[in-house]
Amino acid sequence: MSLPIIIDKSTFQSLSFEEIILLHNYYRPTITPILTMEILGDLKKDFDGSKTASERVKDFANKLLPYNSAVSIFYREILVNDLISGDTPLTYFPILGSSQLVKSESGKIGFHFKESPQERALCRWRDGNFIEAEAELAKIWRDTTTEKDLLVNLKESLKIEIEIEEKFKNIDELNEFVNQILIDDKQQINILIFIISEFGITNEDASKILYRWSQSECKNLKVFSPYALHCGKVKILFDLALRFDLVGTRPTNMLDLQYFYYLPFAKIFTSNDKFQKILAPYIIDSILEFID
Predict the structure, then answer these.
(1) Which residue, of 58, 155, 199, 255, is most buried by count of CB atoms within 10 Å of its CB?
(2) Which residues, including other chains, have CB under 8 Å from residue 45's CB and lie 6 or more apart?
């Protein structure tokens, strides 16, 4: 079976179409929603409706999804489901969304997975159909995610909100501090509330989550929702690294952070992004491998 691999935009752009095909012979790329959106944003930069621009869209789509790929559902959907039910399998294979048991004409039983919005978009792109709504979405995406002072403002607010006496010289020291917080029994409910707040979980879903927490015998996030604990680790580490000047304030860092939320669903993560290479060693575990 091919190894599940997550590639970021820097890796995707560095590979030719022939190299992408070779990659698919040995690995099973997981296409994350963030990668689709980043490519969509790039396509918008020079998409003018011309035949040349339409052909470029088709080339991107065919390069992104030639065959043997898995298109993951949005990480927040996985997170909410795991917090409510606690049954998300962290088996290093992608989560493909809702499915149903079906029987073929020959009588064989299998699963049918519903097509995700990203898959529908990619199919349209492969046909050269870069619809106006997607073009407008790409413009909005680029305008809002490349706001010059986005992380500068967040950094200043974190300095006010987070009062910690410790001074961290590097990510190693910070990571040790964060890991101690994550295993502290007294901090488990605080971490849970932080996750609910930071990831924009609705009041309705938050009520279900907190009710399940109240009924749970084990008040430990590693047992209650392992995936939520992973997401919490990523966000806390990033916020504190930003707060203590250990990572930069480039606006796209907020986008690049999203790739880390999908790491429990792959065996390999590859990137040439400076920000990701700084944080990746502290987020991956002994089973996942990071390749520059």
Answers:
(1) 255
(2) 142
